[in-house]
Amino acid sequence: MYPCVPFRAVVSGCRITLALGFGGKAFQLSVRNPKYIIRANIMGASGDGWVPRPLVVCGPSGAGKSTLIKNLMEDFNGLIGFSVSHTTRSPRPGETNGVEYHFVSVEEMEESVNRGEFIETAIFAANRYGTSKAAVHSVLSCGKLCLLDIDIQGAKQLKLVADEFVPPPAFVFISPPSLETLEKRLRSRGTDSDDAIERRLAVARAEMDYGTEPGNFDLLVVNDDLETAYEEFKEFVFTLLPQ
C-alpha cells in the first residue's frame, strides 16, 4: 500500500484528476453531481487497481462501536482511514480538535452546510454532527478505504444517494444484545445523568429497530462478546479490501 503523498489537481468541467507523486500512480475523482462524492479510483501504472469502498458504521452509544473501530484501525493500519466528523458540541476532556472531531461553532457549521460542503448531517442532543466532503477526500487521496462513523440519520441520508457512489458504501450496524444490557453499560460508565441515559436509551431503541431490520444494513454485529463481535466485523472488512 502506498503512503499518502502530495498531489497536483487538474480540474476540467466536473472532473477532478489528482496526479500523485509516485511512479505513475494516479488518484482520480469523477463527479456527476457536485453535491456528493461520486467516484474514486486508485489506478496503478500496470492498469490494475483497487477502488476503495466507503465503510459506514452505525450503532447506539454504549454498543461498543468505538472499541471495535479502534481495534480495526490498529489491525488495518495503512489500509483504512478514518473520516473525522465535524460537530458543534464542546470538546470533552482528553479530546483533540481534528482527531476525535473537528470542533466548530454553530455558525461555522451552518455556513459550511449551506455551501454544500457536507455529504450528511444529523442532530443529536441539541448538537449538530456531519461528514464533510473534504474529510472523505483526505482519506481517499491516500488510497485508503474510508471509514465513516455516523448515526442512523446520516446513514439514511447516504442511502438515499448510495447509487451516486461508485463503488457503493458498505453499511454495518453494531448492536448491543438488548436494551437492558445497553442500559447497564451506560450506567456503569458513570458519566451521564439519569435523564441523559433515558434520552440515550430512547434514541437507541429507535436506532436498533431500524438497524436490526433485515435489508437495512449489509452486516449486523450483535456485540454480546467483544472478541466474537470483532472477529465478525473484521472478516467482513476483509471482503472490502484488495485480495
From TrEMBL:
Coiled coil: none
Guanylate kinase-like domain location: 52-238
Class in the EC hierarchy, top level: transferase
EC number(s) recorded for this UniProt protein: 2.7.4.8
GO cellular component, one term: cytosol
UniProtKB keywords: ATP-binding, Kinase, Nucleotide-binding, Transferase
InterPro entries reported for this sequence: GK/Ca_channel_bsu, Guanylate_kin-like_dom, Guanylate_kinase, Guanylate_kinase_CS, P-loop_NTPase
Native source species: Notodromas monacha
Protein name, UniProt field: guanylate kinase
Top-level taxon of origin: Eukaryota
GO molecular function: ATP binding; GMP kinase activity
Family: Belongs to the guanylate kinase family.
